[in-house]
Amino acid sequence: MPLIHCPNCGQPISDKATLCPHCNNQNWNPTAPDTLTCAECGVLYGKEESSCPACGCPNNTNAPKKKHKGVVVAAIILSVILAIGVFTAFAISKGNAMIYYDNLETVTYKMLDGAAKAETAGNLIKSVWYNSIYEKRDAETDKYTMKNGKFVDDFNDALSNLFADENFMNSISEIELNQSNVTDLMKKLRNPPTQYAEAYSVLKNYYENYLQMTKLVINPTGSLQTFSEDFNTYDTDTVNAYEKMKLYLD
Fold first, then answer.
1. pLDDT over 90 (residue 14)
2. What is the pLDDT of residues 149-200, one digit of tens each?
3. What's the gap between Cα 103 and its chain centre?
4. What residues have CB less than 8 Å from 218, skipping those under 6 apart?
5. Paired residues of 96 in beta bridges
6. Which of 16, 24, 120, 125 is most buried by its number of CB atoms within 10 A?
């Protein structure tokens, strides 16, 4: 039968004994849950002891528990995933800002190009309109304002001749295409990143003047005076708005 140690005097005694024969101690319970059986010699001893008092086999139940490797690995993996997520979000944000700036720069110069074409076409419209009314000869406008050596009866005829000209209509088509491309880009710029909010506000003003100017050239309306006044105003405001936009471009 296995031996245990008396918790009072430490002498080996039978695990069946109810009284220690060495010190007569009775204040112990050999079946208490705080006892261990030595894996080497079978002796019972208290869990609080670091090793078996009979053979010295270590008591591993008191050793600090090691963290499960799986938990540590999972924690490391989670940290890596979070770090990748933060980096990815930052990279995406930075990438979106770069794309936004590229579109901002592109639309700025596209509007400048369209406005330049509209300015050339608008000035020709004004000249044809004016020369047909006041019967002014001019090498550039005579083919629109005159027929068989005489001025046309109405300025609308002169303007119709201008808009029937293939070269002039090609320039109008280029302005319309430019206008369409600019409008598509402006739609992409509707929700600017914080750092470009102010630039977008200036861009909208630039776009509004550019749009009015190009529309007026594509479809002239009103009298010569109102057309000329509106055209000159939009032309000037478009140029001024472009100068402001340059402050936001590298």
1. no
2. 999 999 999 999 999 999 999 999 999 999 999 999 999 999 999 999 999 9
3. 14
4. 172, 175, 176, 179
5. none
6. 125
The continuous run of DSSP H or E covering 93 comes out as: helix 69-134
- Extents of the domains making up the chain: 101-248
User: How far is 185 from 176, CA to CA, in rounded Å?
Assistant: 14
Strand partners, 147: 150
CA distance 13 to 15: 6
Report the number of secondary-structure helices (H) and strands (E) in the chain: 6, 6
Give the separation between CA 198 and CA 12, rounded to whole angstroms.
90
Dihedral pair phi/psi, residue 164, rounded to 5°: -90, -10
Q: How many residues does the chain have?
A: 250
DSSP 124-180: HHHHHHHHHHHT---TTTHHHHEETTEE-S-HHHHHHHHHH-HHHHHHHHHHHHHHH
Phi and psi dihedrals of 3, rounded to 5?
A: -100, 150
Q: Whole-angstrom Cα distance, residue 209 to residue 221? A: 17
